[in-house]
Amino acid sequence: MKSITRALLVACLVLPVIACGKKEEPQQVEAAPVAVPTTQDKAAWNAYLNDVAGRHMDGITNSPYVYLVPPANPSAAPSAETPDAAPATDAPAATGDTPPTMALDGDYERLLDKAKTDVSRGITRGNLLIFAGLDSARTANLTIASFSTVPAGSMKGVRVLFIGAAADSERVKAAVEPAGVEYVFVDNAA
């Protein structure tokens, strides 16, 4: 009987000490949002887009489609596909500069073709499409053009994230919602 009493006494003294020694799990602290890049620095945009995508992945089962729209090339002539491009200038290149090229507008047109192709093939439920860029109007134009031939209600369960200015959000929303997508706007001024 004495040994049982001693065992209970020891247990009563030892258990609180053991319980106090348990390490509490660290509370997860949500990281502060990454700031919107103000330049075309690809590393900064990648970090920003990864952060934004991570915050909007609830219910998304696949890797997101990301369309980072390049800025307009001020030396390129506007085309039918890029009505927002600036007119060409006749000014010669400064000494040491490379001559004006259509590289950035070519990049825009290739991205537009890729986005149109992706969207026209049909994006399935559980996907996220992200449209972003420094020039909100240009990004909005690309987004709207991408959805121009999508049948109504054909993209239910797909989330479209537009990162741009509030002034462009409503026209993008009006262009993409008929397809049945969940539209999310992220203000790049924030």
Based on the model shown, name its key terms.
190 residues; alpha/beta; four-stranded parallel sheet; 5 helices; 12% strand; elongated
Ranges where pLDDT stays below 50 over 5 or more residues in a row are 77-104
**Largest beta-sheet characterization:** 4 strands, parallel
Assign an overall shape: elongated
**Estimated share of beta-strand residues:** 5-15%
Q: End-to-end distance, in Å?
A: 72 Å
Order of helices and strands: HHEHEHEHE
Count all strands and give the number.
4
Estimated helix fraction: 25-40%
Write down the Rg: 27 Å
Strand order of the largest sheet: 1-2-3-4
Class from secondary-structure proportions:
alpha/beta
Helix segment count? Answer: 5
What is the residue-averaged pLDDT? 76
SSE blueprint:
Elements: H1 2-20, H2 42-55, E1 65-69, H3 103-121, E2 128-133, H4 136-146, E3 159-164, H5 166-176, E4 182-187
Parallel strand pairs: 1-2, 2-3, 3-4
Helix pairs in contact: 3-4, 4-5
Task: Describe it.
Strand 2 (128-133), helix 4 (136-146) and strand 3 (159-164) form a beta-alpha-beta unit. Helix content is 39%, strand content 12%. The chain is an alpha/beta fold and 190 residues long. It is elongated. It has a 4-stranded parallel beta sheet, with helices on both faces.
Short synopsis of the structure:
This protein has 190 residues and is of the alpha/beta class. Helix content is 39%, strand content 12%.
